[in-house]
Specification:
The protein has 267 residues and is of the alpha/beta class. It is built from eight helices and twelve strands. It has two domains: 1-31, no CATH class; 36-177 and 196-215 and 256-266, Vaccinia Virus protein VP39 (Rossmann fold), CATH 3.40.50.150. Strand 9 (147-153), helix 5 (159-165) and strand 10 form a beta-alpha-beta unit.
Length: 267
């Protein structure tokens, strides 16, 4: 069976065999026992991406339902604008959003890539992607114009690559933090917290067609939920033990969720 993905060495078409992918020039990529293929070339960003701890924490937090309205909003925007054709989840993480979207998309339309092997392992366990690969969004293993839709959910955008792989009229759907997103978490940790920069909405080569802001106050259960929220964010990498302990000692925490969903059409 021919793969949507392309060989990262020669950009040739890949075919799935029993144990992995093979291109016409003989470059082979083994399928992991979880079902994904690693298309990162040896030594290229092997240690990049989310850690196993961050993925476990994010999965635990998301499974508690705190971000359910976000994934529902993504589905409400995406489906009417992109009713058919392949959709790539670029920076798929552990596949939590995909587990909700894949049945809505018909089950055979969704593909996933992430630079973190640990994330892709977790995503593979959900069995919601038609194909899944460890790969960099900066060099997507996808042919020009092959996609009808592309998801960029809280991951750094690679707009040049998105424009390359989307067909004319294809849909790019982004989830972006607004200025006050998780403000209360930062205020509980830092003496001088700062707000997020305002998201830049204009994108060269794309036309903004629809937006939806998801804003609500989440009451985060003390203990493991507060810990999971903290550990799934970048703040956990730059917070002192004293400030970390201050946060985890809280009896309760109300946190503002402030996210913009934005759908663009490739011009």
């Amino acid at each position: 069976m021919e793969s949507l993905f392309r060989c990262p060495v020669c950009s040739g078409a890949l075919r799935w065999e029993d144990t992995g992918c093979l291109c016409g020039k003989g470059h082979r990529f083994d399928r992991a026992r979880q079902g994904y293929v690693n298309l990162l070339l040896s030594g290229s960003a092997a240690l990049h991406g989310d850690s196993a701890e961050m993925i476990r924490s994010r999965t635990a937090f998301l499974e508690r339902g705190y971000y359910n309205r976000v994934r529902e909003g993504i589905g409400e925007l995406l489906l009417p604008l992109c009713p058919s054709g392949p959709v790539l989840d670029a920076g798929c993480g552990e596949g939590w959003y995909a587990a909700f979207l894949s049945p809505l998309l018909g089950g055979e339309r969704l593909y996933g890539v992430d630079i973190s092997r640990e994330a892709v392992k977790a995503a593979a366990r959900r069995k919601v992607y038609r194909e899944l690969a460890v790969a960099s969004a900066a060099r997507l293993p996808v042919p020009d114009g092959a996609l009808k839709g592309l998801l960029n959910i809280f991951s750094p955008p690679e707009l040049g690559e998105y424009a390359r792989v989307l067909a004319p009229g294809g849909i790019l759907l982004r989830a972006l933090p607004l200025e006050d997103h998780l403000w209360d978490l930062k205020a509980a940790i830092y003496e001088h917290p700062y707000r997020n920069p305002a998201p830049r909405m204009e994108l060269e080569g794309f036309r903004l067609v629809e937006t939806e802001d998801v804003t609500q106050v989440m009451t985060v259960t003390p203990g493991e939920d507060i810990r999971a929220l903290f550990q799934m964010t970048p703040y956990q990498m730059k917070t002192s033990q004293r400030d970390r302990a201050k946060l985890l000692a809280l009896d309760s925490l109300e946190v503002r969720l402030a996210i913009r969903l934005a759908a663009y059409r490739k011009e």
